[in-house]
């Protein structure tokens, strides 16, 4: 790009080369302040994007605006200056049309390596760094701007951990941030963290820094600090050759919509295009290949030694011989350490044989990825092998096949591998095959059954194994298959009531994993028992004979509703059976267009839920549940009444103001149900606030907690397992609000799942990590958890495990009991007398004994009998899957989608036809037709915003006729799209005049086309 090109053309070309990096290094909002040539409305639009979709999306919008617009002469110079003054100097170096200060390729390599190191150590920094200690120093050395400081301080209001994350996100956008940040850490008495980042002792690193000449610059300093992160000297050279595939994973994870990797958006690519060396500034740095292995070993932090106990050695032998096995060891006995040992031995043997070894560890929870990576595989293997953990957010922005190629051990959620295998089967570029791995380790392998993702992966394995057998007979080359290692604390009995069925279940798990045997400890059982402390088991049974006027009032209301809709009297109020009947009635009424019965059934379900809450937690929690529901119903009605806007946007308002505006305009059923609650509202609240009527089960729980935490003062640590997210949250609030608990040192917090399947707000992955971290350090000593805490998670040894009215199966019982690993620990079941909970626990004890007896039987089968049975079960599994696939395909609707109509389930108005539906990301179903837009209102929904607090929701879509919820407004690629939930509609098939209701879109036997963005944007009247 010589002088023959204008500054505008050079700018356009630089953006095309470096777009991914520029987007990552721009801090958009402060830069906008200095772009005086941009119109105010354009700035506001970009600022809204930053607030709703994040900085990366806003940076993309800014660059696109600058590329497409006609701006005054000299605007490129103003933009570069704005970047510098707005705290984005690194971005300024990439877009300066003068090409005077372009970062060198070596600088990019150093920056990427530093970034990757920081990403690996981020959990340590988040846990151990106090953001206030370093904030002022970072500002002083110009690592942060004043605006950066203010934003970090604001984030800190949500906790120190949030502040540290915001600090790290901002410093990496600055020049020479790594060496400057190390200096800040050392000068603020955080020497230990500086050593974590460098792998050097304090004196060693200081000496090295003094020996670096001024000409070498910060780039070389950062590089030498990073030498210690290389596994060995040989690998350093290969890393230089392959830096395009091993550039910073965190970099690529930040870039959301671009398929261009950072390696492509690098100075090396520009060099090739321009035909010259873009070595602006120091390029003298190397990858530290001059230092030998001994020097590297000296400067690296000491490696933990990998040793197994005798009982662990007993179960690993067949796996060390390359056989497929299942290892069954109790929770807390070191199953994962065994897996690390087997993985290292496997890779060592492959290396000695000059063969390619590749290990993938599959887990079924996102949190387990980081846990296994940080605590087990990375510490023990990093000296010899490259280890990487992949899940959720990172994987979505990283090419999984590239990670597989460039790493020896990958810890991943099973769904990531499944998705990549599917891509490979479809002929897409970014897929992998099972033959790419030499060892697959499956954690919590008892989930390898039915349609679980583990089983889908293993069915591919079994199909290829059968093909290989055929190829062998034909003397043709076979496809290599990996060794399989399954890990579990309890394979269970699959609901068996007889011993033979339990044995079949164990055999089925073995068949699904193609295991040669299932290994348990026998010879060293006494040592295992010494290692695993069996807790003392107790039952705390509540005789709930209290008077319960609150419950009586709810039953009175429910009886009135049943009478109103002429429903057959039902007396089993507050049970699961009652709820199921109400659901059946609601669906039937929706199909028949019977609005009265449908509404009554819906409200009866809410009262039934309140009865269940009253039986589990406080009366006030049950009352709040009903009040929230009826407040939401009122708001929906007012949203319909207030809709005078053709655009469909709803104006939110204060509930009390709405009450004063006008009486509700509703039909007879709405009026009856709403005023039935409103007429009884004051009485219900009064009864709920009366402490004399407290739940006796709660009293038992209180006494149990107080006893345990008084007996083990200062050292107590416990978990309460409960059924629902709502009860976990309510119990934690009950404990926090009760001063008696604080007096005995109880520090409680809830721990719930991250999925959105429940109506109750989930926890984010980061919130879960933070709670577990605080539990390990003792800042929290009592977790109130759903089943999310039963399996796998590395939760510190507990003195007390309480199952609060929650009994599921024998696997969950073993997992939960295994959490009580401290000396003299206690396992308590709290339940009401006559609830059936104690009886189910006794059944689970019986099933556990049955399970071990079944395992022993399978272990003692003759080899021939075992192999025959396993092959039968494998063939049966593959055949069942084949038949199911054929049935699913046959169910697919071949008719025109327009023959399917969707009716509002509440008022039966025709909402849209099947040919109006498009799909985004193969999951989100949307309708963007102008006709549909006239039928709904968008209203603010505070409950929805709370539930999806970790990402943006623009409101809830409700039917303009009746206020029934239809879905939510989602933002995708800058577009506001109405995302529909099929459970809110009745599906009418015109060809056979049938009506049905579905919970999920996948149940509907028709495939809808993907969204054509170009077609939509061309015909859309939106800006």
Explain what this protein looks like in three dimensions:
The protein has a seven-stranded parallel beta sheet with strand order 3-4-2-5-6-1-7. The longest helix is centred in the C-terminal third of the chain and has 29 residues. 53% of the residues lie in helices and 10% in strands. By secondary structure, it is of the alpha/beta class. The chain has 43 helices and 23 strands. The C terminus is likely disordered.
Portion of residues within helices: 40-55%
Category from helices, strands and their pairing: alpha/beta
Continuous helix count: 43
Q: Give a short account of the largest sheet.
A: 7 strands, parallel
Radius of gyration: 31 Å
Spatial order of the strands in the main sheet? 3-4-2-5-6-1-7
Tell me the total number of β-strands: 23
The pLDDT mean sits at 78
End-to-end Cα distance, whole Å, is 35 Å
């Amino acid at each position: 790009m010589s002088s023959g090109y204008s500054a505008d053309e050079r700018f356009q070309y630089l953006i095309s080369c470096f777009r991914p990096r520029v987007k990552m290094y721009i801090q958009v909002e402060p830069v906008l302040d200095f772009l005086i040539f941009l119109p105010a409305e354009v700035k506001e639009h970009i600022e809204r994007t930053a607030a709703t979709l994040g900085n990366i999306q806003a940076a993309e919008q800014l660059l696109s605006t600058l590329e497409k617009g006609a701006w005054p002469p000299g605007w490129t110079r103003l933009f570069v200056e704005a970047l510098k003054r707005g705290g984005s100097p690194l971005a300024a170096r990439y877009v300066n049309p003068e090409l005077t200060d372009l970062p060198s390729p070596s600088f990019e390599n150093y920056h990427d390596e530093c970034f990757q190191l920081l990403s690996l150590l981020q959990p340590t920094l988040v846990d151990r760094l106090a953001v206030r200690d370093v904030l002022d120093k970072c500002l002083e050395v110009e690592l942060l701007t004043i605006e950066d400081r203010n934003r970090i301080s604001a984030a800190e209001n949500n906790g120190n951990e949030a502040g540290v994350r915001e600090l790290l996100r901002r410093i990496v956008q600055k020049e020479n941030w790594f060496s400057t940040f190390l200096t800040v850490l050392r000068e603020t008495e955080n020497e230990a963290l500086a050593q974590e980042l460098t792998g050097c002792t304090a004196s060693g690193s200081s000496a090295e820094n003094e020996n670096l000449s001024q000409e070498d610059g910060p780039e070389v300093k950062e590089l030498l600090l990073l030498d210690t992160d290389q596994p060995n000297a040989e690998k350093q050279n290969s890393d230089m050759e392959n830096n395009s595939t091993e550039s910073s994973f965190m970099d690529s994870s930040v870039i959301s919509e671009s398929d261009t990797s950072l390696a492509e958006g690098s100075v090396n690519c520009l060099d090739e295009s321009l035909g010259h060396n873009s070595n602006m500034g120091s390029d003298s740095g190397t990858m530290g290949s001059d230092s030998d292995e001994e020097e590297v070993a000296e400067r690296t932090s000491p490696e933990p030694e990998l040793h197994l106990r005798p009982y662990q050695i007993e179960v690993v032998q067949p796996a060390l011989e390359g056989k497929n096995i299942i290892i069954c060891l109790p929770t807390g006995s070191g199953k994962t350490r065994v897996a690390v040992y087997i993985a290292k031995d496997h890779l060592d043997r492959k290396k000695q044989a000059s063969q390619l070894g590749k290990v993938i560890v599959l887990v079924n929870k996102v949190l387990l990825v980081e846990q296994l990576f940080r605590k087990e595989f990375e510490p023990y293997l990093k000296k010899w092998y490259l280890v990487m953990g992949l899940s959720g957010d990172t994987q979505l922005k990283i090419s999984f096949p590239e990670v597989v190629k460039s790493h020896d051990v990958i810890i991943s959620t099973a769904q990531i591998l499944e998705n990549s295998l599917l891509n490979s089967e479809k002929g897409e570029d970014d897929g992998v095959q099972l033959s790419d791995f030499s060892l697959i380790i499956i954690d919590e392998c008892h989930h390898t059954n039915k349609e679980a993702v583990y089983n889908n992966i293993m069915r591919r394995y079994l199909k290829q194994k059968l093909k290989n057998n055929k190829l062998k007979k034909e003397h043709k080359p076979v496809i290599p298959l990996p060794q399989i290692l399954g890990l579990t604390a309890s394979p269970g009995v699959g609901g068996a009531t007889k011993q033979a069925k339990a044995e079949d279940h164990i055999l089925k798990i073995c068949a699904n994993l193609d295991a040669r045997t299932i290994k348990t400890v026998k010879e060293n059982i006494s040592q295992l028992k010494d290692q695993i402390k069996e807790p003392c088991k107790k039952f705390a049974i509540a005789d709930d004979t209290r008077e319960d006027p609150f419950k009586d009032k709810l039953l009175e209301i429910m009886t009135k509703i049943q009478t109103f809709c002429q429903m057959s009297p039902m007396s089993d109020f507050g049970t699961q059976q009652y709820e199921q009947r109400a659901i059946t009635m609601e669906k039937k009424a929706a199909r028949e267009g019977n609005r009265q019965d449908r509404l009554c059934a819906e409200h009866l379900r809410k009262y039934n839920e309140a009865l269940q809450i009253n039986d589990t937690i406080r009366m006030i929690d049950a009352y709040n549940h009903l009040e929230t529901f009826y407040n939401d119903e009122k708001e929906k009605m007012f949203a319909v009444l207030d809709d005078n806007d053709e655009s469909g946007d709803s104006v939110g308002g204060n509930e009390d103001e709405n009450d004063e505006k006008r009486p509700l305009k509703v039909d007879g059923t709405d009026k009856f149900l709403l005023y039935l609650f409103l007429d009884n509202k004051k009485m219900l609240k009064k009864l709920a606030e009366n402490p004399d009527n407290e739940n006796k089960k709660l009293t038992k729980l209180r006494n149990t907690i107080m006893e345990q935490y008084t007996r083990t003062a200062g050292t107590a640590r416990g978990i309460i397992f409960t059924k629902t997210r709502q009860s976990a949250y309510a119990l934690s609030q009950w404990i926090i609000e009760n001063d008696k608990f604080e007096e005995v040192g109880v520090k409680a917090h809830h721990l719930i799942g991250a999925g959105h399947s429940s109506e109750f707000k989930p926890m984010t992955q980061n919130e879960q990590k933070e709670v577990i971290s605080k539990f390990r350090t003792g800042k929290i000593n009592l977790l109130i958890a759903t089943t999310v805490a039963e399996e796998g998670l590395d939760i510190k040894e507990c003195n007390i495990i309480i199952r609060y009215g929650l009994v599921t199966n024998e696997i969950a019982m073993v997992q939960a009991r295994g959490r009580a690993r401290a000396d003299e620990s206690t396992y308590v079941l709290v339940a009401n007398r006559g609830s059936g909970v104690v009886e189910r626990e006794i059944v689970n004890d019986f099933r556990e004994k049955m399970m071990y007896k079944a395992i022993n039987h399978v272990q003692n089968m003759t080899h021939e009998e075992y192999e025959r049975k396993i092959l039968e079960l494998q063939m049966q599994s593959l055949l069942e899957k084949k038949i199911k696939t054929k049935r699913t395909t046959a169910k697919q609707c071949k008719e025109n989608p327009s023959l399917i109509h969707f009716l509002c389930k509440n008022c039966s108005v025709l909402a849209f036809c099947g040919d109006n539906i498009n799909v985004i990301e193969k999951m989100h179903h949307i309708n963007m037709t102008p006709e549909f837009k006239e039928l709904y209102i968008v209203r603010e929904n505070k409950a929805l915003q709370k539930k999806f607090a970790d990402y943006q929701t623009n409101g809830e879509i409700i039917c303009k006729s009746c206020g029934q919820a239809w879905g939510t407004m989602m933002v995708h690629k800058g577009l506001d799209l109405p995302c529909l939930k099929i459970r809110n509609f009745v599906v009418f098939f015109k060809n056979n005049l049938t009506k049905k209701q579905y919970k999920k879109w996948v149940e509907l036997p028709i495939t809808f086309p993907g969204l054509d963005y170009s077609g939509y944007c061309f015909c859309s009247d939106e800006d």
